[in-house]
Amino acid sequence: MGERHPKKGYRSLNARQHQTIALIESLSREQNIVKQLCHLFEIPRSSYHYHLKHRGLVKPEREKLRQQAIAIHRDSRGSAGARTIAGQLNQLGENVGRYKAASLMRDAGLISNQPRKHRYKIANDESKIAPNLLKRQFNVEAINQVWCGDVTYVWSGTKWLYLAVVMDLYARKIVGWACSDSPNTDLTCAALRMAFENRGRPRNLVFHSDLSCHYTSLLWKYQITRCMSRRGNCWGNVF
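C-alpha cells predicted for IS3 family transposase:
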C-alpha cells in the first residue's frame, strides 16, 4: 500500500456528502482544482456535478411529503416527532421511514415539543388546615379509630366516573363509598356519610386524607378530628 495523504484524515470526521461538496465548491472558487479536491475527499466528480445541477430544485414528491409532515405536526400541536410522522405518513399510503421523516422535519424547520414531566414539590411543613397526626404510623389497635378517604377515577365504558371511598384503617375495610361523574364535595361527603351511618356514628374518630378540602364541612358536623398528609408526599398516603 502506498503512503496515505495526510489530508485524507478529513474523512474521519464523518461529514455528510453535501457538506463535503459544499467545502469543495468553496475551495475551488479561486482555482479550477475540482478534480484534485474530489480525489482528495474521495467524492466522485459525477456526484459533485449532479449535486450542483440539482441543487435548489424542488421535487414534487418530496414537497408533497413535506406538506403532509407539516400538517401532521400542526395537528399534533407541535408534539409529533419523526417516528409519529413516519407512522402517520405510512397510514396515508406513503412509504416513509423514520430517518426520511426526520429529514422532512429538518427541511420544514419542525421541532418536536414534548411537555415536561410534572414534578411535585415536596413540602416539609405540615398543612396549616390540619396536622399530620398519623406521621406514617398506620397500625391501628381497634376499629373506628382512624378512617381514611381518597378519590380515584374509573372508565365505565362510555365515560370516566369518579369513585370516593372511606376505609377503616384497622382492618383496611371499605366502610363507605360513592360514585359520580364529577369529583366535587357532594361525592366525597356522600362516601363519608355512608361510612358514618353504617358504623353507628362513632366518637373520637380521626379522619386522614390528602390536602383536599371536600371533607371539611361534614367532618366538623360529625365532630371528627381531621388529619392531613403533607403536599407532594406519597409516603403519607394510606392507600
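The chain is about 35% helix and 15% strand.
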